[in-house]
Amino acid sequence: MSGVAQVLDDREKMVVFAAALLDKCPNAAQRAKELPVDHCFSPGIYGRVLHIPAGNIIVGRIHKEPCLNILLTGDILIRMDDGSKARMSAPFVFKSEAGRQKIGVALTDTVWMTVHPNPADETDPDKLVALYTVDTFEQFDALQAEKQKALAQGDGQ
Fold first, then answer.
1. Which helix (H) or strand (E) holds 135?
2. Of 60, 41, 38, which is closest to residue 49 (Cα–Cα)?
């Protein structure tokens, strides 16, 4: 299987896995929307801190750009869209590449932070979610295609 075909296969498995989890736990999506989130700002930097009680299932959004992940407290099982799995215990820091998605099950009360560049010093949480994430892999792929087209035309960075 080619690299691209493998990525697409892994993504499809992730989508199916997330849907199955949410189907088996119908209140999980609503509970995830209600989890406490803190927004931290410093000039040029945005930090999003998610508080995940033990036992909660989280289906993360797909990030448009790489970001820093910091597990501040807790213990969580993570499955990535490439099929890899890990048990992470705080303190733990890692970089997520653009286009990655994670599903997590908090084994203990967990605090997870993502850190993003914020050159415009935006402070509206809804605008920040739209600025840094997409809902689907199709949206991410379309965004990447637009970037490639702009680069090819000499309009992009």
1. none
2. 38
- 152: its two tokens: 């090819």
Listed by start position, the domains of the chain span 3-144
Alpha helices in the chain (DSSP H): 3-24, 28-33, 125-132, 137-153
| Secondary-structure class of domain 3-144 per CATH | mainly beta
Q: How far apart are CA 19 and CA 22, in angstroms?
A: 5
Which single residue is written with the structure tokens 């590449």?
Answer: 97
Looking at residue 150, what is its pLDDT? 86
Distance of alpha carbon 138 from alpha carbon 127, whole angstroms: 20
* pLDDT digits 0-9 by tens, 22-56: 666 655 544 555 789 999 999 999 999 999 999 88
pTM of structure? 0.77
Q: If phi over 0 gives left and psi between -120 and 50 gives alpha, with beta otherwise, what is residue 44?
A: left
Burial classification of residue 2, based on how many CB atoms lie within 10 Å of its CB (0-12 exposed, 13-18 middle, 19 or more buried): exposed
